[in-house]
Amino acid sequence: MEPVIISIAFFSCIFGIVYLFFQTRNKERLALIEHDKDASLFKFSKDRSSPVWAVILLNLSLVLMGVGFGFLIGSLLESYSILEGDVVYAGSLFFTPGAFLLLGFYLTRKLKL
């Protein structure tokens, strides 16, 4: 009985989110038309030099590299310092992917979007 309730709740939440997304998007476009504004911001330009998937792939790869580097740094700090293992691993696993994402931000600014 519980899996049925959980699955119904899950799919109703997904439906609610999708419904709100499309309803809000429609209201925004109607408001722009009503006030005689330009709705060109909703159109996607095809003349991009680098596609969106390249940015996503770059950031995903940098996060995974950051996690691996975090494990390496955590192992080195646990071996060669007086810090405890849990604190070292948690700190390095939060710090290094964040640093690599910051690097990814600067790298994606250099890409022409």
UniProtKB/TrEMBL annotation:
Domain of life according to the entry: Bacteria
Name of the featured protein: DUF6249 domain-containing protein
Entry-linked InterPro entries: DUF6249 (IPR046216)
Alphabetized UniProt keyword annotations: Membrane, Transmembrane, Transmembrane helix
Span of domain DUF6249: 5-108
UniProt xrefs under Pfam families: DUF6249
Positions of transmembrane segments: 6-22, 52-75, 87-107
